[in-house]
Specification:
Protein name: XRE family transcriptional regulator
Radius of gyration: 17 Å
Pfam family, one: HTH_31
Number of helices: 7
Organism: Pengzhenrongella frigida
Number of strands: 0
CATH topology: 434 Repressor (Amino-terminal Domain)
GO molecular function, one term: DNA binding
Number of domains: 1
Strand content: under 5%
Order of helices and strands: HHHHHHH
CATH class: Mainly Alpha
Low-confidence stretches: 84-108, 118-136
Mean pLDDT: 74
Oligomer: single chain
Length: 136
């Protein structure tokens, strides 16, 4: 499978997601959080540093559950540039930010499908039937 390069917006969104998860994890160890989310510590580390900018929706949902984060809060925070945080590269320190807030449920409704469309958006090229090309 060939993946197209991520757009700058997708990279920035991944960095915002990573910063949110690092803040929410606080003093909790990465190992404890990863085990609670049923993912590897390496996966969590890559998501937190922005190396996995478009993690799968079930992975984000599992981490959010382990950190007691609402998916609405995650959605709201990763889709708008954060106040007070500049996107970071791996190895750079994260600047302090204001706590995240969930959207107002009376004026904005976010579905799991909306979140999945952004969080796990992966542009893939159509698969080619290898046997069709061999036999012709």
């Amino acid at each position: 499978m060939v993946r197209l390069p991520l757009t700058p917006a997708e990279v920035e969104r991944g960095q915002r997601l990573g910063a949110l998860l690092r803040r929410a994890r606080g003093e909790r160890s990465m190992l404890e959080t990863a085990l609670d989310a049923h993912i590897s510590p390496e996966t969590l580390r890559k998501i937190e540093t922005g190396r996995i900018a478009t993690p799968a929706f079930p992975t984000v949902a599992a981490i959010a559950h382990a950190l007691d984060l609402s998916l609405d809060a995650v959605w709201a925070e990763i889709n708008e540039p954060e106040r007070g945080v500049e996107p970071t590269s791996p190895g750079q320190a994260t600047k302090p930010v204001e706590p995240c807030t969930a959207p107002n449920p009376t004026t904005e409704t976010t579905t799991s499908a909306d979140i999945a469309a952004v969080v796990s958006h992966r542009r893939r090229r159509p698969m080619v039937n290898a046997m069709a090309t061999v036999n012709t």
